[in-house]
């Protein structure tokens, strides 16, 4: 019913008159209620087919709880998309310190280019990746030891036979891309169609060579080589050099077998030598016009990802994806909506500009505008507030009173400078005001402490009003975020080369409030 929420605001004054109905309306117009999201489980099932996901190192060994949760969930999805599309190259836009990039390369053996505009982040990512590999090797050794212990226990339960024949241990490497050639094409297409995917490419991916590891033992069946055990480890299998037993009688091998083993050994050595270079942090500022081939010299069929890409970067990631034929899929989680550029915010005519909002033609035709205040509200975390993580009321009150001081004493209503995170560094309200004025380059030498405290006392009794106002903003936050995300989704729906696109809730919103991913795959003809 269109009139369901007609009594939320007064028809004449436009003031809020029914808070309960306001909250219900906000809930009704949120992503969780409208049913426009595709469940993550459905997407993974459609991508995997009959294959099961891999299990490896837990990210909480190397990251805080929030980042661990994000990287664990998103990397699994990215790996499944890459496998489905038959690609091994990933471009991580706005990669920051390289958390996601490092994990994708080490856990899933993907070749990842992490691009960030900050040299500091890029250099930090290099150093962090170096340290992470040391820990990764330690877990590799631990995994080997555990597996060897299990094998020894099994061997002790069995009598050792007098004659042990030379046997080949053939293992399909872990973390290998799940080649579509090994699946029932009809089955996976049915699964994908049931999830809403259409015309998604199922191009053949090259079969990875299965290496025969030959180990001949004389007396103890449990004596396994380190190289064989490494195949069963969490690290990419193709980073492990092929084991060739010195005790194997090569004279008994035919020339064809010798040639095959030699070729397999060379390939494995090449893979091992390049294993440390599976992740490449790069520094570059990405815009909608960026030519990725100028940044990545060996650009091939790939997918783009972005974990909390800031402001316009999320929108530009989607634009690059639709424009570049090499990019077969995208998985983007945006953040920092307050930093989005808006085409109609200042009513400026700049038709050539690639604005952050709106993206889709429908909202462009409507001349839709959110405004900075609304976009700031979209960044608030309703789910966190709902579980008791209250808003920082005191710091918000400090900032509100500071605004009054700036306007009434200095006559400043707008500035390009920002106060930033001063509250946590301040010992009192007076200290907060003086540090803020200094950052805004306003002279406080003529402003006595008593005057500052007079403003504090004047508005102190209204702190509860401020808290109530901000709670209303929190309730409205999901609706504004919905508008921004649906704008991006509609933009993808308008493109002719997209087979499927959708919004997927990836993360627990209490752990990671910006939890929605925009995902899209190109049509088969685009592969």
Automatic annotation (TrEMBL):
Pfam families found in the cross-reference section: Methyltransf_32
Signal peptide region: none
Taxonomy, superkingdom: Eukaryota
InterPro entries: Methyltranfer_dom, METTL25, SAM-dependent_MTases_sf
Domain Methyltransferase: 66-343
Annotated protein name in UniProt: MET25 protein
Organism field: Circaetus pectoralis
